[in-house]
Write a structure and sequence with these properties.
18 helices; PLP-dependent aminotransferase family protein; aminotransferase; 8-stranded mixed sheet; transferase; 4-stranded antiparallel sheet; alpha/beta
């Protein structure tokens, strides 16, 4: 800010003081009166200049950071963040006063970005793009239910639609998991199933083993519930069993939450030998295993599932349909030993009574008719072709994978810090998923999750190469 006393903030205005102060600095940054790298006044100095409390300044600086205009440097202060000039093609379509988007910094920001993003320009997307799904499959099922008033006018069974649980029992049998309809509880998506397990099987202060890398939403949910995370390094064959055994011996965890098949974010699947050793460790240290198979429909059925090897004795199996049908239906389920189901069902009742009987019956029809199986097979074939193309595009630009990609995701090594890489890519119009978002300890690194279905544009790979090269040059230039 220039020397002298700035004009006073309006204390009687409808906009809070923090918002007025944030807008004052934002305007100066947009007008290039404060250039990238410029240091803003300290919180104390800014409070004195504007006649407000330090709390108001902190709130204003927080808003500027959230808008991507400011960055905090530890023990140095607040600085104007470097952004691409507004004349670039990625920014030209935005209004002149629009604030730049901020690269995802946590699980919530990543999900929000995915909701707002164009799938065609979202290599970090966590789902299949809408044009890969089959709307006729859904419409056909709903038409068949249009005259079924018994389904449409009822709360439904707290355990879930009976026809769905019968169809799921058959689906699980195809995977080698033997669970009758009475051992299956329908939920509002797989995430709801995981929530029920966290709330029913765990208590604040409990320790839980988690894959690292793993799904950041699960890390956030467990932490919010007061659970201590015990990160276990995840490799192509599964968890690092030596680390897992040491953590189990030291911390006596209550559970291990893992993805056996087409792990998010790496795409890896558990091998049979690791699965057997993992279950022996679970027995030896008496912890529950929660197996999330959300991407199971995109994988061959012969891949090992812990629930099949364990017989649902110590393993609780979680699945859903949003990845292959539509996220809008929110139908998921869990399968568990009978003695666990009563408590889980009670928690579901208290949480929201029942799940949607209409959506559950529609999914049951898709399963029973075999149409969902055929749709999933087509998706797998299309993903196989997409992975080959993405692998060629990555190799052409000199990038390598942490392991051969499989399923929907690949774990790409960019050679530079992907948190630093995410913002210039977003400024160029590409939403990515930096590896630190998938670390339980937010460990920085050069890896990023790549969605095989949304990374087919050569322009993204050229931009990724250009941004990575620019970041590699910066330390030498400085």
């Amino acid at each position: 800010m220039p020397t002298g006393t700035p004009p006073p903030l309006q204390r009687d205005a409808s906009q809070p003081l923090a918002g007025q102060l944030a807008e004052r600095y934002a305007q100066r940054i947009r007008e290039r009166l404060l250039l990238p790298g410029a240091r803003l006044p300290s919180v104390r100095d800014c409070a004195r200049q504007h006649g407000v409390s330090p709390h108001t300044v902190v709130a204003a600086y927080d808003q500027l950071q959230a808008a991507g205009l400011l960055e905090a440097r530890r023990q140095r202060g607040f600085f104007v963040r470097e952004t691409r000039p507004p004349a670039t093609a990625a920014r030209a379509a935005q209004p002149a006063t629009a604030l730049p988007r901020q690269a995802p910094v946590d699980a919530t920001a990543l999900i929000r970005g995915m909701f707002e993003a164009d799938a065609a320009r979202s290599p970090g997307l966590g789902t299949l793009p809408a044009d890969w799904l089959d709307p006729t499959l859904l419409q056909s099922a709903l038409r068949r239910l249009s005259s079924d008033t018994a389904v449409q006018m009822s709360y439904g069974d707290p355990s879930g639609d009976e026809q769905l649980r019968v169809a799921l029992s058959q689906r699980l049998a195809d995977l080698g998991i033997h669970a009758g309809p009475a051992q299956i509880l329908a939920t509002n998506g797989a995430t709801h199933a995981l929530d029920l397990l966290i709330r029913t099987q765990l208590q604040p202060g409990d320790a839980v083993l988690v894959d690292d890398p793993g799904w950041s939403v699960i890390f956030a949910r467990l932490t919010q519930a007061g659970i201590r995370l015990l990160p276990v390094p995840r490799g192509p064959a599964g968890p690092d069993l030596a680390v897992l055994a040491a953590l189990a011996a030291q911390h006596a965890p209550r559970a291990y939450l893992t993805v056996s098949v087409l792990h998010n974010p790496t795409g890896h699947s558990l091998d049979l030998a690791t699965a057997h050793q993992l279950l022996r460790l679970a027995d030896a240290h008496d912890f529950l295993v929660i197996e999330d198979d959300s991407y199971g429909f995109l994988a061959p059925e012969h891949l090992p599932r812990l629930a099949a090897l364990d017989g649902l004795r110590r393993v609780v199996y979680v699945g859903g349909f949003s990845k292959v049908l539509t996220p809008a239906w929110r139908v998921g389920y869990l399968a568990a030993a009978p003695e666990r189901l009563t408590a889980l069902t009670d928690t579901k009742l208290l949480d929201g009574l029942t799940s949607s009987p209409v959506m559950e019956r529609a999914v049951a029809l898709c399963l029973a008719q075999g149409r969902l199986r055929r749709h999933a097979l087509r998706l797998r074939e299309r993903l196989d072709a997409a992975r080959q193309r993405v692998a060629a595009l990555a190799a052409r630009q000199g990038f390598q994978w942490a392991a051969p990609p499989d399923g929907l995701f690949g774990w790409l090594d960019t050679g530079v810090d992907t948190e630093r890489l995410a913002q210039p890519l977003l400024d160029a119009g590409w939403l990515t998923a930096p590896g630190a978002l998938f670390s339980a300890t937010r460990r920085p690194g050069s890896l990023m999750r790549v969605n095989m279905a949304t990374s087919l544009d050569p322009a993204f790979w050229r931009q990724l190469r250009a941004c990575a090269d620019e970041l590699q040059r910066r330390p030498a230039a400085g």
